[in-house]
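Colleagues,

Please find the record for the four-part complex below.
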Amino acid sequence: MKYSFRNDYSVAAHPSVIEKLVSFAAEQNIGYGYDEHSNQARRLLLDKMQCNGDIYFLAGGTQTNMVVISHALKPYQAVIACDSGHINVHETGAVEGSGHKIITVAGKDGKILVSDIEAVMAKHTDIHKVEPKLVYISQTTEIGTVYSKAELKSLACTCKKYGLYLFLDGARLASALACSDATLADIAKYTDVFYIGGTKNGALFGEAVVITNPELKKGFDYHIKNKGALLAKGFVCALGFEALFTNNLYEEIGQKENECALFLKEELLKLGFKLAYNSPSNQQFIIMDQALAKSLEDDYGFEVFEELNEKELIIRLVTAFDTKISDCQNFIRTIMQKI
Amino acid sequence: MKYSFRNDYSVAAHPSVIEKLVSFAAEQNIGYGYDEHSNQARRLLLDKMQCNGDIYFLAGGTQTNMVVISHALKPYQAVIACDSGHINVHETGAVEGSGHKIITVAGKDGKILVSDIEAVMAKHTDIHKVEPKLVYISQTTEIGTVYSKAELKSLACTCKKYGLYLFLDGARLASALACSDATLADIAKYTDVFYIGGTKNGALFGEAVVITNPELKKGFDYHIKNKGALLAKGFVCALGFEALFTNNLYEEIGQKENECALFLKEELLKLGFKLAYNSPSNQQFIIMDQALAKSLEDDYGFEVFEELNEKELIIRLVTAFDTKISDCQNFIRTIMQKI
Amino acid sequence: MKYSFRNDYSVAAHPSVIEKLVSFAAEQNIGYGYDEHSNQARRLLLDKMQCNGDIYFLAGGTQTNMVVISHALKPYQAVIACDSGHINVHETGAVEGSGHKIITVAGKDGKILVSDIEAVMAKHTDIHKVEPKLVYISQTTEIGTVYSKAELKSLACTCKKYGLYLFLDGARLASALACSDATLADIAKYTDVFYIGGTKNGALFGEAVVITNPELKKGFDYHIKNKGALLAKGFVCALGFEALFTNNLYEEIGQKENECALFLKEELLKLGFKLAYNSPSNQQFIIMDQALAKSLEDDYGFEVFEELNEKELIIRLVTAFDTKISDCQNFIRTIMQKI
Amino acid sequence: MKYSFRNDYSVAAHPSVIEKLVSFAAEQNIGYGYDEHSNQARRLLLDKMQCNGDIYFLAGGTQTNMVVISHALKPYQAVIACDSGHINVHETGAVEGSGHKIITVAGKDGKILVSDIEAVMAKHTDIHKVEPKLVYISQTTEIGTVYSKAELKSLACTCKKYGLYLFLDGARLASALACSDATLADIAKYTDVFYIGGTKNGALFGEAVVITNPELKKGFDYHIKNKGALLAKGFVCALGFEALFTNNLYEEIGQKENECALFLKEELLKLGFKLAYNSPSNQQFIIMDQALAKSLEDDYGFEVFEELNEKELIIRLVTAFDTKISDCQNFIRTIMQKI
């Protein structure tokens, strides 16, 4: 295989992360996130966000979503999410496994609308139905789109109005920050809790949960351990965020990923391909002839996102911190030879 | 601080693990444990164990205990464990959080006796009580003791007789293998499921679950994801096991840890200290005057395991893959100067 | 108020049930369903169903659905249900609270189609998604429709093909039996587990769960207790089923309910009202002007099922074991006076 | 069998309860506890307790314990209970099934001591252990003893000091009220939530939960439904409490039960039998020769509480609302003939 566009977690870690790990590999640290690397990573993040949040490092995205949601809700309370939302489709029932219903809404372009929330609230008014209590969004969404600052603000207002928490899943936040006008500080301001993805943005593994709503801060450390999510060597995870939030590396990774993704998008449009979704970020969704897709598989990795019909499917191309424009050029060239 | 004997997960990873990671840091891998490093680690482990087990890599010990136990049991079924057992005391209710009662027994020397199991089974005979279904033991135990091969075999027979699963928590298995006559192959033979600890034995992080009982194999992959425990970059974890199970490194780590621990034990006995428990492994439990312990804290890290009375406490000294005899000698020398 | 068509659980119990209770009110019985009334009720039910099922008596419908589903599924497994299904809308997340995702399908006329199941199975093929394992249907459905024997048989075949359990919620089974060609014996034959509703069909309270699939029989008694659903005085509940299944009372109740419901339906159609759904059973869904509905509220109870627009809504009229044709005639007369 | 002293839930209901039920058997009521009988029962109870509590009627004791505890606690929080406590031994893991650890203490005479709570709090001080948050006691206890008003007050003070909720299980509260100086008003004052048992005190079935702590009031109605515990015909259950709390019937039942129990106790002591526990309430625990116990079984029902040795066992005799002194006399006479 020449290169895989299958996902953004194929490679262990960004060289700066590896370098940081190597340089501290012999050092003794305190366990469970009480160490100096975790504290330093927290300081770097809070500086960037200009907020007063509690920060915890967890191992992965599904885990983080489940831990945050089950912490925020009482057993009879539910999450509102897009029907395409990661927690609804790709997490093997982890949220329900922790005891909570996901109320799905259709949304638009992978994003929840204010009117979606209003409709849910209008229907959930007595004890025979769950009480909606948290809105789950992701930035970028499952189809690569992003919320603008204005959209986040509207959602935040609506949530406040109804007493709902707003939770943002930032698994692909680096890419989002590079193509939305919503900054990290905006996200910290408009949400009650969110996470900054590490796994898909160059860390060895791990996500940084940021809790800004004081109601949600209490007991979160206990809850992490209760769900089996407390890392003994928290510093191994935190080291990655230390590296990624030094010298704007996190932002650079997002920019570079998007640059590659937009190169692919434009070149494929030039070649006459159609987009399934119009994504500005590091995931591109291309409608492709099944035979062509099949013929590319030996040389390039990618995911079949959906079978459209007997002839066509949607492939997903994901760029990562290690993707080079030359990888994209080669991919385009290979396609040009086949069509 | 000169050296910390606080625990065996203070340092990122054994140099061989770091080296392996660095050498593959730029390589693209398939996600979720379907990659070649995971497969290679599985082969190395199965070779050593001479068994036909399914192997999965999870991020930490509490998580592994919770995922395995909640997979093995139906909601009305319970675990039998020592009252000192890690799942009962130090996991913030993770097992109960997944819905299962822990039936505790007193045991002896931190170990469950056949008679403990028999007594539990005699009492749990109708639908108003939970149905015991799994026996949880750890090797080494919470107080550093180990089960012999004969003891494991007896427990296994008793479990079989009552239709109980036997699950062994191997968080500190390297140390145990170096001081018990029970080999990895014996453990694979006598248990239904167990895990080989990585976090506390030189891996960056992670534990390798080995399922030998076919009843427990089905659906475990789904269950891992449902509990938020599936690692996207499974290969980062598996790389560690690849390194640790090459050239008997895992065994060597255990031997070296025990060597250091026994050096501490003997020297402290010579100095007139008493042991709280007679441990042959990498955890030593020393009864110490509170003032002396206090005076050591600036130079050496260790855990206060228990306050015995107003004058004395039990300190726990843990040796790790990076502990050197010279660290132990310095510690002994410091004590000698103070007494 | 002259009469309430709000639901079929407004009145304590059918006179025969009360009579049976009174006649045994001083008798000492064994607890927890091991008594002679429970056994007699079981015999009467099995006779009628011609099957070899295990029968348990639980207190209510939501409880029964949750207990059965959480018994049948492993944590990563999910239920397939109509989006209008009771478990999805009206149970305050009880099924999710027990840890399981509900995969919703649109269905047709409130009923799940074979093609719905096939579509779900086609999409759930890897460990990142829940594993569908049980199909939940109700007879009658939330909109009063019923599955025919042929439809049940098709669903059963499809379930068998995919290794899915078929679970039928018979909260309103008396009414269903009186308007579907599917008999109690058919239901016992085509499902793996189902329940015969008592609460909504003249019992003081309670539902009779019938488990025909041997896989689901084991441990159900323990599971009931684990979920807090074991009745100490099981005989008080069983007495009801003893009375209802003597002299075909259960069937008679269904017939009488339907007779009243169809009377309402026909008279309202004659008066020019439109039906929201074409129901053959004891729930009728009538599109009505909001002002008219409002004006009826003092004299008659009913539920507003849905607001259609600013002018119209759907009201639900439910007939019960105690409804008399004269109640219906009076209701119709009142309407005639108002339109 | 002449009479069964096996338990206090062998007979359907007290004649006054049956009579009340019969007199309202044809009446239409609102569902889910919003009806007039439920409201009337609430008024009667609040009058008696002189407090401002929220009152809910649930179907049984295990259910009530599980619903209350899982409502009060976050996932990482635990209950403190006597090791003999009903929730710890006789509820098939229902509390753990709802996700919570039970921390057991030895207690004295079946009762939790202030020092027990203090010891637990001293040990649970970091995130690796559960956070104790609720103390569960029962009145009467599993061995028939009762807390005095002074004891309740001390426990309440200790709970307040540590931020713990105090929850009292009143399954056998009628008997307790008749032999402790703690009144219903005292219990309402000193606990945060408790329940007044119906099932074991002459109701058809059901327990009345009284929540006095405002923190616990919010959302309890939703939580009941979420756990499958909401009764559609709440009025059937409430009717019982209406009857039991009219004309001091509840108190009378307790007095009469105790009168019979103490008669048994005294006569058996006169005959030279020894008590396993010194109970002032409707459960008596008698040490008896196995052969004698065996020989009584044809004529009298009772539970073997524990096998003491090869020769002796403890039998439990329970008196109920329907027990007559003549039943007790006959029992004593039968024994006299045999010894």
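The mean pLDDT of chain B is 97.

Comments are welcome before we finalize the supplementary table.
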